[in-house]
Amino acid sequence: GSILVLHGPNLNLLGIREPGHYGRQTLAEIDEMLQRQAAAWQLSLSSFQSNAEHALIERIHAARENTDCIIINPAAFTHTSVALRDALAGVAIPFIEVHLSNVHAREPFRRQSYFSDLALGVISGFGAHSYVLALDAARHWLQARSP
Ligand code: DQA
Known about the structure:
This protein is 37% helix and 18% strand. The chain has 147 residues and is of the alpha/beta class. The chain has a single domain (2-59, 82-145), classed as 3-Layer(aba) Sandwich (Rossmann fold), CATH 3.40.50. The site of 1,3,4-trihydroxy-5-OXO-cyclohexanecarboxylic acid (DQA) has 10 residues, from loops.
C-alpha cells in the first residue's frame, strides 16, 4: 500500500506554533515517526507540506496514478477550501482527515469542515498521535479492501 501524507498551511511551524493547541513536536519529527511506523507496517509513505493551496492541489493531482490512500491535515484550509475538497473528489483517492487539536472544542468556525463528509473518517484531538491513528486506520482500510 502507498500512502501520501499532506500537511496544510502553518504546519511547518509545529514545535513553536501555539504549543498549547499543537504540541511541541516539529513537523520533521512527526514525518520521521510516520516513516518509521509505515516501514514497520510495510507501507510506503511520502509526506508533503505547503502553505499554498495550489501546491497542495497539484500534489493531489500528481497522486492520481500511485496512491492508495491520503492522510490530510488541511489545517486552516479545512474551513475554507472548496478547491482542495474538489481536488480530492476529482482524483477519487480515499482519504482520512486529521487534526492535532480537537476542532470541536475550539472556536465555532473550526467545526465546519469542507472535507469530513467525503473522508473515510476524521481523527481530531490527539496531537501528533492523531497522524499515527490515521495511519493505522489507513492500514486497516487497505487490508479490508484487498486482504
Ligand atoms: C488544525 C486545526 C485547524 O483549525 C487549524 O487552522 C490548523 C491546524 C489541527 O491540526 O488541529 O492550522 O488542522
